[in-house]
Each structure stands twice: as C-alpha cells, then as structure tokens.
Write a structure and sequence with these properties.
four-stranded parallel beta sheet; binds phosphoric acid mono(formamide)ester
C-alpha cells in the first residue's frame, strides 16, 4: 500500500479487520519493520485519540515518531501555484512537503474542513498538496471529508461484537452546539457499504449527507423507526451539507437515550458532549463501545502502517 487516504485504500475490509485482530494479540510481532524508519505526524487541528493511537501503533512497529502541531507551530502554508506571497502565508506547500520528505519515511496529516467553502473542502487542499509534492507515503488522520482510520477502527469494533452474520447498524445524527464536519460520518458510510450488515442512516430533514457518498443507502428521517431492532447504533453530529456548514437546529429530541438504544451497542468516535449528544446512562452503561473503539484506533493505524512499511524498500 502506498498511501492511506480513504477507507478504500485498505483493499478487502474483512482481511484488514482480521489482520488488526491478530496484531492486537501480538502488538510487537512486527517491531523489526520500522527499525531506523521515521513517521512524521502533522496536526493542523486538535486531537487526543488520533495523535496517541498513531504514535502507539508506530511504537509497536519500531518506528521513530516526530509530532508537530503544524497549525500553531508551523509557518502558514500557501497552496496556490504562481501566487505572489506578499500576504500572511510564509511557506509554499511545494517546499514544505519536500522538506518533510527529507526527514521522514511516512507522513500523516490531520487537516479539518473549514466548513465555509464546500468546493475548497472537497478539493482536500492540504492532504492533496502533500500527496502531490511529498515523495513519501501519506496517511489521512482526518481530512476535510474523510476519517478512514476511525472507520477502520469502527469496522474492527463491529467485528469483535457481532453476534449475528448480518447485524443492523444505524448511523444516527445527534444535536451539537457547534458546526462539525462530515468526515467521520462520510467514512463510516463508505465502510458500512462494504460491510456484511443492514445499514440505515437517520438524520433530520436538512441534514442529509453528500448524496454521492450515501448513494444506495437507506436514509430515514424518523429516528425511532430507524432504530427498530438495531444491533449497533453509531451516533455522530454533522452540520448541514446542502446548506453547507450550517447548524440548522440543535433539536434535543435527537439525543441518544438508554430507552432509544434498546438492546443495541452504542458507538461514538469521541470526543462526545455528554447529555447533549448522548445521555450519561448510555456512556456509563455496559452497552457503550466507545473505549473499545478508541483502543482499536491503535490497531487500525497499525495495520495501515504495517502495510505501508511492507511496501518501502529496506
Ligand atoms: N476520534 C478522533 O479522531 O479523536 P481525536 O479527534 O481526539 O483524534
């Protein structure tokens, strides 16, 4: 594998999930692969899980790790070609990506959507800038429109808790005071489209995700109807896609409660706002998988890194 930019880069999902489950049993089994190699993690946005789980996965594989909060510590980057750089941007992506490629063997990037300009967000300016100009493999640690490491971790979690061959999995929108990106939901949808499962998306009218991504999915606007007989409920907020980046309303009726969850397992990528997105009783109850999802982030990252390292010359 050269890059991991989308969940589809992993190839066969079930094979990758089984590989992760095996790595979990023996995390240091491939420690030799990363010896004398370096991964550079560049964060243009905040993180807890992605930062620590990717570092831990790298450690399991013997990789050296360099971490930089690029958004607050790096030079302001310019991405346009031919610009007269007499404004606030100090360094061009052409140099920055090539310079990082001198110090590291793999670069991982987190750069969220601005949620103002849909076209700009969908162009994935930062991620694609590095892809174009770096000479080393690139990993997406959550970009404007995708979070494939989270989706792979969620696939591992579903596999570990599946009690029937074809469970019903529901992706349910939840209220939130801030405008949040679509990346987690988009990658979860893409992953579910290649899962052995019945999959339903439920969200209020006005909050439908990108129709190109949800094409072929069942979308139900009545939450209770969608939740009937669910085995897994993955809860996530996202801002409007059609009225791009706007919070149309924060309807509290969409909060996930113990009653609505029924017998299903609860999933959320974290961080989560308690008693806004989901009530305490769910997060503190035995049906919550959120800590296991966070733990599986390490093994999702480890599968990705192992495959990339296998493709590098010794
Ligand atoms: N789920 C997730 O990506 O968490 P962080 O934003 O803390 O990395």
């Amino acid at each position: 594998m050269k890059n991991y930019l989308s969940i589809h880069d992993i190839g066969d999902l079930q094979t990758a999930v089984q590989e992760a489950i095996e790595l979990k049993k023996n995390p240091y089994g491939f420690e030799h692969l990363g010896k004398r190699k370096t991964i550079c993690l560049l964060f243009f946005n905040n993180s807890l899980r992605t930062r620590l789980s990717t570092q831990k996965a790298a450690q399991h594989l013997g990789l050296n790790t360099m971490v930089m909060n690029f958004g607050s510590e790096g030079w302001q980057l310019e991405f346009e070609d031919g610009t007269v750089m007499d404004g606030r941007n100090s360094e061009h992506i052409k140099e920055a990506a090539r310079v990082v490629s001198q110090y590291a063997d793999i670069v991982a990037i987190r750069a969220f959507a601005g949620l103002i300009d849909k076209e700009k967000d969908e162009a994935e300016v930062v991620l694609n800038g590095f892809k174009k100009h770096a000479s080393i493999p690139i990993i997406n640690m959550e970009s404007s429109v995708a979070h494939p490491l989270q989706a792979l971790a969620d696939a591992i979690t579903i596999e570990e808790h599946r009690t029937i061959e074809r469970p019903k999995v529901v992706l349910s929108w939840a209220p939130h005071p801030k405008a949040l990106p679509h990346a987690v939901a988009n990658s979860f949808v893409k992953m579910m489209k290649i899962q052995k499962a019945e999959f339903v998306i439920t969200n209020p009218v006005g909050y439908d995700l990108n129709p190109e991504i949800t094409k072929g999915c069942q979308i139900v606007h009545e939450q209770e109807k969608a939740l009937e007989n669910a085995n897994f409920v993955h809860v996530k907020n996202w801002s409007s896609y059609s009225d791009y980046g706007r919070v149309l309303h924060q309807n509290p009726a969409w909060i996930m409660t113990k009653d609505k969850l029924g017998a299903a397992k609860f999933m959320h990528c974290l961080p989560v706002r308690r008693n806004v997105v989901v009530e305490d009783a769910v997060l503190d109850g035995h049906q919550s998988l959120v800590i296991e999802q966070a733990n599986n982030r390490t093994f999702a990252a480890q599968v990705v890194l192992k495959r990339i390292l296998n493709g590098l010359s010794p």
